[in-house]
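Ticket #4471: structure output looks truncated?

Reporter: J.K.
Steps to reproduce: submitted the chain below (158 residues) through the standard prediction queue, then opened the result file.
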Amino acid sequence: MDTDLLKYLHSDSVILNFKAKNKRSIISSLLDRLIEVKKVNKNDKKEILKVVLQREEMGSTAIGGYIALPHARLSQIKDVVVCLAIAKKGIDFESLDDEPVNVIVLLLSNQKEAGLHLKALAHLAKLLRDKLFIQQLKNVNSEDEAMSLILKQQTVLK
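Returned output as attached by the reporter:
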């Protein structure tokens, strides 16, 4: 993956003040946004949701530090697709550290792109491990502010 997350994440795929009750509704809402911005076909939602939830059954992608990285590789996805949700009030995502999550990044990529998918996950994990960055991200007031913050964080990591 190009280590520029902003190649795949656009402000229309950022959700602020995100609220959801459980893992299924979180992922479903993120997919709804991707459908709305035409990055995912609405006819594929049921299958994508099923695959992402199957991945969650293998082990929660809430990695601790208030972060969840649900992800899947599917034949229906042509390129890397990313959706970012920020929940000021944490949401239960069955996190490994039993803490609620505030930053959820849904990553979808093509079934045949295992290497690209793993690079994208590694990049996201590296980007999101900075606690100060997560705190700043939790407090953004606009999608553009979130995008600027991500750009700044990526610049620091290069």
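Triage note (M.O.): checked the attachment and the full token line is present. The beta strands are 14-15, 62-64, 67-68, 71-74, 81-91, 101-110.
Status: closed, working as intended.
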